[in-house]
Amino acid sequence: MEVCKMVFTENSGIVKVWVSLVLNGTYTLDQVPELFNLKEVVTQVVNSMK
User: Fold this and answer.
1) N or C: which end of the chain has fewer CB within 10 A?
2) What is the pTM of this model?
């Protein structure tokens, strides 16, 4: 049986939403869910904007 693995990129809608939530202070990077590679990509995008 094959397991489906989701991979998010910086262009994924959910990544863009979480980046904006972190940048406006609604959430911190620690609060981004550990959903597939979501937290990793959001962290990379936020850090690249600093």
Assistant:
1) N
2) 0.90
Sequence-separated (6 or more) residues with CB below 8 Å from residue 21: 27
Opening angle at CA 23, ends 10 and 44, nearest 5: 35
Burial class from Cβ neighbours inside 10 Å (0-12, 13-18, 19+) for residue 19 reads buried
Q: Are 8 and 37 in contact (CB under 8 A)?
A: yes
Instruction: Tell me the pLDDT of the chain (50 aa) as tens digits.
Output: 677 888 999 999 999 999 999 999 999 999 999 999 999 999 999 999 98
Using an 8 Å Cβ cutoff, are 18 and 32 in contact?
A: yes
